[in-house]
Design brief:
Number of helices: 9
Largest sheet: 22 strands, antiparallel, barrel
Number of strands: 47
Helix content: under 10%
Shape: globular
Mean pLDDT: 90
Distance between the termini: 33 Å
């Protein structure tokens, strides 16, 4: 019923747009044709907080404009990132909204956890940052003016999470010049999958000569293509782990309730609205709002052991990702100086259910000498009977971001120019992860949560304060020196609960303490009214008080992640830092259409808190960039050829991995060195337009990456007894995720048949192979051979895809037949496993299989 209501709402919106279209045909045509012509001649960007021609901006930047976004039918991050050779990403689980973005090889892998590092790439929607923890905010792409990709540190103007680069999504703004709009629709069929499609619409309404309103609505259904096939799991003392019938007194389960073809479908719907108010000839106010709701089902990663595009999962799997943002931009002049205020409030909620059967399967094998996981642990019901040890993970995140920026800019035409401002941001996340074992006895569960083996209930806050500025001086008419800096303070904190329960019987001393038999974490480490932790695991003694302090975070039994202060009670664990980042640039124009530049810049990412108390906070990491580049416009403006060569030094990079109990740990690793080159070209021959872009990235560690970042341990291979600080990746190991080569090329030929303009289009994209994990060492510990995690998880192989389209434009109408991934290449976006020891089932997140479809649109 809810799906039907959403479809009806979007259909009604688009129908209302179409019903008022007829009177405005003539007026809108001139406006849209003028916009298209402008895009062909110049690309205007605001990467440096000013409007400039992209060929005059002395940084490595690519921009995809409105016309190309429409021509290539781009709707989301995965599609436009294919055209940005400096951009790579990890699709964590593959579910929409969980991508972690990287640029120029600045990737250590393992990021994206809700309690992990902040992102190293900033994402902006217009003037407001929408960078989030735990996955990129995947804004639906429709009626977008352009997407700007700024490679290299952008810490001066964009701050903490723009260490490696920034992606900016710039929307089309309300327009007082005329009434116009558009409606577009698509139906597609996925090979080995189902039927999908989308419907989108936009309307621009001038309310008065000084006020205009613009609205966008969309609904999209992505067909599934991964099948959840029948299967069984059995646990010791059963001898066949895939058996369907218990013959030896053990437990056997099947997934018959969840078997489904085309398991991983997604629905997305939402809208965007903006109002532009010209207060006078100098001041403009633009309030905007965006809402998007994405509902995904099933798994977007498949198990290659079972065959192509197949899984065997045993619990419900789904994820809902809903966000709303309200933003306000005020632009004006004070004298001949430009003033800008940009503020926004983002509220994002996710809710998910995940199958965690692989954990039980892995640990049943790992503990086979103890007769399996149920015997080694204590998976019993209230009557003492052994129960099914599988887990179902219920999770949610409530992410909020408040950002405010105020800046001033001197006149752009002056010899000396300045941009300066102040920035404040507060991000918070309410984290909930409930690992449920149905039927688990209450005394073995997390206290007050029967059936919960492990609970994470935490509140995270990340705050940033900054003052920034850039000044440019024209030494000569064709030689400019630019210097910039950003003084920053970060203040990050974490408080709450994580871990197992504690058997409350006999003053918490009854055994077993919980289903895992663990004294290491959970309620055992919660604070009591005496200010002590309940149980001292080093001395095996209890606190002087057995009364637990009330939970600091609602929804948890008590608090074990905090600092106790006398007279103040429980305070969040906190880490702070401050510093300064810089940028120096020299730009030279030897002739009118050639620009050469050199840049020395630095970016950073704040440090943060490790949840496990025995692991210290991790420090900020820093990226220093040395770059030379060129911008050229040749052949009378028909050819643009731009590029950059760079070397980056990444100091003490933050490295995340699943440690003990599949628990995320973040450490500072060694330094890394990244060298690369990136180029893009555009050749406009009238009816034929050719574009190409490519990058080469050589990213390597400079020293050994060790299992621990404790300097008291020598980073060497262990001795026969297994002691020592293990090498996870020797010096010279390539950083993961980013391919060495990435390139794409587009060709579009348009025929001129009067008012009918048929066209042919082709897009080819290639990327080389990459490691899925940085840990590549093969370690001999006594007689035990520990194979490297990168090999267990598997390498991401090289792949090449091709998209083709044939269509026609006729006055205000378009019609197109297209095929994406024409040769059904099974390209791999990422690989993952469900837990730190679940190497028996590495999953592959593929690109979409071959998709054939038809789309049509009308402008008015």
């Amino acid at each position: 019923m809810l799906v039907t209501k959403r479809k009806l709402a979007v259909t009604a919106l688009l129908a209302s747009v179409a019903s008022i279209a007829t009177p405005a045909f003539a007026q809108s045509t001139d406006t849209q044709e003028a916009a298209s012509a402008s895009e062909q001649d110049d690309i205007i960007v605001t990467a440096q907080k000013r409007e400039e021609n992209i060929q005059n901006v002395p940084i490595s930047i690519q921009a995809i404009g409105t016309k190309k976004l429409d021509q290539l039918n781009i709707a989301n991050f995965a599609e436009y990132s294919q055209l940005l050779p400096s951009v790579s990403f990890q699709a964590l689980g593959g579910t929409p909204g969980t991508n972690v973005v990287y640029m120029r090889g600045v990737a250590s892998g393992g990021d994206g956890n809700h309690s992990g590092s902040l992102p190293s790439v900033g994402v902006y929607l217009d003037e407001q940052p929408v960078t989030t923890i735990g996955g990129n905010l995947d804004v639906h792409v429709y009626d977008i003016a352009r997407i700007e990709s700024l490679a290299g540190p952008q810490g001066t103007l964009y701050g903490a999470s723009s260490e490696a680069g920034t992606i900016r999504i710039i929307t089309n703004k309300p327009d007082t010049s005329g009434f116009y709009g558009r409606v577009d629709g698509e139906v597609n069929s996925v090979n080995k999958g189902g039927i999908g499609g989308k419907v989108e619409g936009m309307i621009n309404i001038p309310i008065s000569p000084d006020i205009a309103f613009r609205a966008v609505g969309f609904y999209q259904k992505d067909a599934g293509y991964i099948d959840n096939i029948p299967g069984c799991r059995s646990f010791l003392p059963e001898t066949n782990p895939l058996g369907c019938i218990a013959t030896n007194g053990g437990i056997t389960v099947n997934n018959s309730k969840f078997v489904k073809k085309d398991y991983n479908d997604t629905e997305l719907w939402g809208g965007r609205a903006a109002l532009k108010i010209d207060l006078d000839e100098n001041w403009t106010v633009t309030p905007t709002a965006i809402y998007q709701d994405t509902r995904s089902h099933g798994s977007y990663g498949y198990d290659p052991r079972l065959g192509d595009l197949k899984v065997q999962h045993f619990f419900p799997e789904y994820r809902r990702d809903r966000f709303i943002q309200a933003a306000l931009t005020i632009e004006g002049k004070l004298g001949n100086w430009d003033l800008t205020y940009a503020g926004a409030y983002l509220d994002r909620k996710t809710f998910s259910s995940s199958d965690y059967t692989d954990y039980a399967e892995a640990y049943d094998s790992l503990y086979s000498h103890y007769n399996g996981i149920s015997s080694y642990f204590y998976f019993h019901d209230a009557a003492g009977n052994t129960i099914d040890p599988r887990q179902n993970v219920i999770g949610s995140d409530h992410f909020k971001k408040l950002s405010q920026e105020f800046r001033v800019a001197s006149p752009q035409g002056e010899r000396f120019r300045v941009v300066a401002g102040a920035f404040y941001q507060r991000q918070s996340n309410e984290i909930h992860q409930d690992y449920q074992v149905p039927g688990l006895a209450p005394e073995l569960s997390v206290n007050g949560f029967p059936g919960t083996l492990w609970l994470t209930q935490q509140h995270r806050v990340d705050k940033d304060y900054a003052m920034f500025g850039e000044a440019a001086f024209d030494i000569l008419p064709n030689l400019t020196f630019t210097a910039g800096g950003r003084a920053y303070i970060y203040d990050n904190s974490l408080i709450g609960f994580f871990g197992f329960g504690r058997n409350p019987g006999n003053g918490f001393s009854d055994g077993p303490p919980n289903a895992a038999g663990s004294n290491r974490t959970g309620v055992a480490q919660c604070f009591t009214t005496s200010g002590q932790r309940l149980y001292d695991r080093d001395t095996d003694t209890y606190s002087s008080s057995l009364t637990l302090l009330p939970a600091a975070v609602a929804g948890s039994p008590c608090t074990n992640l905090a600092v106790y202060a006398v007279g103040r009670g429980l305070q969040p664990v906190n880490t702070q830092g401050q510093g300064f980042t810089h940028k120096l640039n020299l730009t030279w124009k030897p002739v009118e259409d050639v620009l050469l530049y050199g840049t020395w810049s630095r970016g950073f990412r704040p440090g943060g808190i490790n949840r496990r108390g025995t692991i210290p906070p991790y420090a900020a990491d820093f990226l220093t960039n040395y770059e030379i580049g060129w911008k050229t416009t040749l052949a009378g403006g028909k050819l643009r050829f731009n590029g950059a060569i760079y070397q980056q030094e990444w100091k003490a990079f933050q490295f995340s991995f699943l440690g003990q109990n599949s628990f995320t740990e973040i450490h500072n690793g060694p330094d890394a060195r990244i060298r690369g080159v990136e180029m893009d070209a555009n050749l406009n021959l009238g009816p034929l337009v050719l574009t190409a872009a490519g990058s080469y990235t050589d990213a390597k560690t400079k020293k050994n990456l060790c299992l621990y970042d404790d300097p008291s341990f020598a980073c060497t291979l262990p001795g026969p007894g297994g002691q020592g600080n293990l090498i996870s990746a020797p010096a010279g190991t390539r950083l993961p995720v980013t391919p060495r080569f990435k390139a794409n090329a587009t060709a579009r030929y348009t025929f001129d048949l009067g008012t009918l303009k048929p066209y042919l289009q082709g897009v080819v994209a290639h990327q080389s192979s990459a490691s899925s994990d940085i840990r590549t060492a093969v370690i001999q510990t006594g007689t035990l051979l520990v194979v490297n995690p990168a090999e267990l998880q598997g390498r991401l192989p090289a792949y090449t895809t091709a998209n083709f389209a044939i269509g026609a434009e006729f006055t205000n109408y378009t019609f197109e037949l297209f095929v994406q991934n024409a040769f059904d290449e099974r390209g791999q976006l990422s690989r993952f496993q469900e837990c730190g020891s679940c190497s028996q089932r590495p999953y592959i997140v593929p690109i979409n299989p071959r998709t054939i479809g038809v789309r049509a649109g009308a402008k008015f």
